[in-house]
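Same chain as my last thread, 131 residues:
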Amino acid sequence: MSTLFTKIVKGEVPAYKVAENSKFLAFLDIRPNAKGHVLCIPKKEVDKIWDLEEEMYQELMRFTRRVSLALSQTVSCKRVGMAVVGLEVPHTHVHLIPLNSMKNMDFSNHVEMSDEEFKELAAAISANVEL
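reply #2:
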């Protein structure tokens, strides 16, 4: 059975995409810890990050870095934090979270955003991504 993220990759579930190439996809988390919270995933469904083939892992990190650089240019923050948790969706994903304090890494806190705010933010980040 396909994960939620595989359904996003296939276009079966909508997402606020910020970057995409043939192997990876980045989109806004719909329950963000902070404005600009992005998820970077491989399009290939692999449950745990350590189960990725070495080359795929390295490519995911390069893709994630490029998205992070765009995110830091777009959203005002002290730095962009990175986390790999993987408890809610069994599909490898890297969280990129704009940080102004450690509270931004608390996954029990969420920022409310409208559909229009998500769309505008996704477009702004996407405009700064250099793949």
